[in-house]
């Protein structure tokens, strides 16, 4: 399911493109797996704080507006939201 009110450890929207941009402007692009999870290799160093955005196949974008310094996205994007996050990440909404 891809709803914002699922319990923790839920399955997200697979196939989304996730772009992380470090404080130095370096970008990393990842494709979410079938559960919506994504990651960088352990040896990658991202300049903090970073921003992130997700894009769907149609080019719709959902942007993280506030830079963060924690790489564990799921620690804040829980069902109810934590540390100022609004809750689950959901696929971008198509422009009307």
Describe this structure in words.
- The chain is mainly beta and 96 residues long.
- It has a domain at 17-76.
- The chain is built from one helix and four strands, in the order E-E-E-E-H.
- Strands 2-1-3-4 form a four-stranded antiparallel sheet, with no helix packed on it.
- Strand 3 and strand 4 form a beta hairpin.
- The longest helix is centred in the C-terminal third of the chain and has 4 residues, at 73-76.
Give a brief rundown of this model.
With 96 residues, the chain is mainly beta. It has one helix spanning 73-76, and strands at residues 17-21, 27-31, 51-55, 61-63. The chain is built from 1 helix and 4 strands, in the order ββββα.
Radius of gyration: 13 Å
Bulk shape? globular
Mean pLDDT score: 83
Largest sheet: 4 strands, antiparallel
Order of helices and strands: EEEEH
Distance between the termini: 24 Å
Percent range for helical residues?
under 10%
Uncertain stretches:
none
Q: Structural class of the secondary elements?
A: mainly beta
What is the overall number of helices? 1
Order of neighbouring strands in the sheet with most strands? 2-1-3-4
Number of strands: 4
Q: What proportion strand?
A: 15-25%
């Amino acid at each position: 399911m891809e709803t914002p009110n699922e319990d923790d450890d839920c399955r997200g929207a697979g196939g989304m493109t996730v772009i992380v941009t470090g404080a130095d402007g370096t970008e990393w692009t990842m494709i979410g797996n079938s559960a919506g999870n994504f990651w960088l290799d352990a040896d990658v160093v991202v300049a903090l704080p970073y921003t992130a955005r997700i894009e769907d196949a149609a080019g719709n974008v959902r942007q993280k507006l506030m830079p963060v310094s924690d790489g564990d996205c799921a620690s804040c994007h829980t069902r109810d939201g934590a540390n100022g996050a609004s809750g689950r990440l959901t696929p971008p909404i198509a422009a009307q």
